[in-house]
Amino acid sequence: MLFNTTGFIVFLIIVLALYYWKALTWKSKKLMLLGASYIFYGLWNPPLILLLWISTIVDWTAGKKLYSEDNASKRKYWLILSILVNLGFLSFFKYGNFLMENFQYILGFIGMEYSPPKWDILLPMGISFYTFQTMSYTIDLYRKKIKPARTFLDFALYVTFFPQLVAGPIVRSNELIPQFYEAKRAKRDQFLLGLLILTIGLFQKTVFADSIFSPVADSVFGSKDALLAIDAWTGVLAFSGQIFFDFAGYSLCAIGIAHMLGMFLPDNFRYPYGSIGFSELWGKWHITLSSWLRDYLYIPLGGNRKGSSRTYINLMLTMLIGGLWHGAAWTFVVWGALHGFYLVIERFCKQIFSISIKSTLSKLLLAFLTFNCVNITWVFFRASDFKNAADLLKSMVFIHGEKAVLTTNHIVLVQLLMFLVFIGHFLMRDKSLVGIIHKTPVWLLSIIWGIMIFGLMIVQTSGEQFIYFQF
Amino acid sequence: MMPSIQLKTLGIAFIISLGLLIPFEYYWGHVKHWPKSYDSQDLDLWAELRAQVDDLDSTDVIIMGSSRGHYDINIHLWDSITGTRPLMLAYPGSSPFYPIEDIVEKSDFNGLLIISTAPGLFYTLGDSWGAGRGKAFVDHYYDRTYAQRLNHFIYKQIDPLFHYSDPELSIKALVNRLPFPNRDSVKSPNIWPPMVKVDKYRNVRMISQMETDTVLQRKQTDIWFSPNRKNPYPDSIDLVIGHYSSLVNKFQDKGGRVAYIRPPVSGFYLEYEPVEYPRDKYWDRLLNESNCSGFHYTDHPDTKDMIPPEWSHLNKRDADIYTKTIINLLRQEGLL
């Protein structure tokens, strides 16, 4: 089920009605939320609920054993079992074809012909998200950082909680499970804030991502011709806007719905396109994934504790795996490598030069440089293959290009909006959405909210998927 | 700290959204004459009807093809005359290349199949734009999720009540109406004028404004007009006709009956189609090789002089006459 559909609005109204029905006990409400979460997921493809169940049962059992077992080697086995099951599913469903293609390529390279049957594997929605979430639970138990969930119901709800099930935020168990222990009920302020945040999220997704940016990005990345630089840049900026509003919009929907239930989910985006440098960017973009990669990959690899060279290697490895997490293709690996390279360069420069940036103009210029470096990486992220990416990059630097594909309406709209996005993110980079809402006068908030509701009514997208569902 | 949002804020927001929606509805309905209608290209509505195919029997009728078959036959009038309402599976801007394959290969239907032919779409191969659209709605029928079915069920109740639910009035489409001039080499996107009203059975009626308003008609004919248009598949006629005739023969072997129809055209299409798709090389050969009946509008006095107001689709009066004529011809042939 998608947030941006009328079906979901009806679903949410029913869930909220049951949730706030006084006749139900807190346990019944949690059972209802769990059932609703399975319906939410199963309406897309019912058999794939089995994967959720297996993941839930394996990690619940492993978690209990990890907590109660004192024998170090047995604890290690339980952790390995949990990781194998989770990564096994992820590898099979997400990387099965990719691995087979590469295996075939390697055999071909050494002169052996092999044509494996094409696997028709359906990627379970949100598998990368719930896999990482449940793995964090067992790893934290192994490290004795947390206690296991008190009941199976609490744990199952943690794995399956529908607002963030398919596209995050990737929530740590100690952030969410304790919220299930006691009855939750949103006060009117929190409920209305949740509704407003949900409206903003839906507006970002349906109006900006789907209606304005997506057609432009599709047109440019789908073109077989060598494009003019203005078209190529507009297309890349459009994708930059699309992926931000798509994903940040989803996260806001999840956070807003949780608020309406009286719960809290962590921020996932904090105006990333206004970042100065890449370490700041990764503290503002998909925060729950970058902190996951930091805590469960970068730091265990040694982090920055083993000297400069090793730090650079760790950064690169983390970003390469981060790239692969986003998709089973070498273009995603290159996307991750570019980000790793940027982080390494930034770190290297900071070690060599000690420059303190104070003037707003300097900050703005550096943010602009960061923003455009990020835009270049999006070419690899969105391109269907390396040829597509190379063609577009050549067009962007005026090496070739003769074909115009975009209408002036689209060029003007995308350039203007992305200019406003950049400036807006730069100005708000140290602020939070809730803080901004808090400071906005009632009359202005009402007007903006009213315009967003109207926009959602006339937007008329046919329930287009969120980009991050495929990750 | 939690911001204090009052109910008043939400109340004012709703009033503002209504204050924007009401003029929006008024403008598109009363100033621009946009009908409140189902979407003729709604994949879910098509899939809902496609799902009914397995419940049909040999006395039932399915209409397939592109918009001419879709818009020119009044299935409710058909129902009132014959007692059976045909299942409307024709789809605008598509070739029936894959949909017919789907009905023949994957259903037990053995009634009457009426296949409408618009040459520019019909005589194309499986990799054409029109065939791609046809494949998309067949695929959607098989791939649609339960969530999509639920959305369709809910949305079906809202769709005909408001103008804002029309995809042509969506934000995505409205962006195309911004007034910035395009560069010479960029083709401006088509701005489709309101033309038809569609009901939940996918029955289509031309709106009165399109029947009479020459400005609207001109907007539509400007979209249809393409002076250098050629048949993109001149060498593929054997493959195309072979594809349809083998499917039709297979369908006939199951006890099904087939009739091709060629609905009336005017203006540019009247000049272009006979040149690029000469009747003897296409229509006559299609009937011969498929070994079935066909009704070409030029062969019948009631339809040969019909003039579709925007060159491709009939007004309500002519659509009713055309429907009656087809019913009579089918009866004469013993197909109905």
Largest sheet report of chain B: 5 strands, parallel
Q: Which oligomeric form is depicted?
A: heterodimer
The termini of chain B sit apart by: 74 Å
Helix content range of chain A: 55-70%
Task: Output the number of helix runs of chain A.
Answer: 18
Given the structure, what is the number of helices of chain B?
15
Strand content of chain B: 5-15%
Written overview of the protein:
- By secondary structure, chain A is mainly alpha-helical.
- Chain A folds into 2 domains: 21-184, no CATH class; 190-470, no CATH class.
- Chain A is built from 18 helices and no strands.
- Chain A has helices at 6-19, 26-42, 49-68, 72-109, 127-142, 152-160, 173-176, 188-221, 229-260, 278-281, 287-298, 308-326, 330-352, 360-382, 386-396, 408-427, 433-439, 442-459.
- In chain A, helix 8 packs antiparallel against helix 9 and helix 12 runs antiparallel to helix 13 (330-352).
- Chain B is of the alpha/beta class.
- Chain B has 15 helices and 7 strands.
- In chain B, the strands form 2 sheets. A 5-stranded parallel sheet of chain B has the order 2-1-3-6-7, with helices on both faces. In chain B, strands 4-5 form a two-stranded antiparallel ribbon.
- The model of chain B has no long low-confidence stretch (mean pLDDT 91).
- Chains A and B meet through helix 1, helix 8, helix 16, helix 17 and helix 18 of A and helix 1, helix 8 and helix 9 of B.
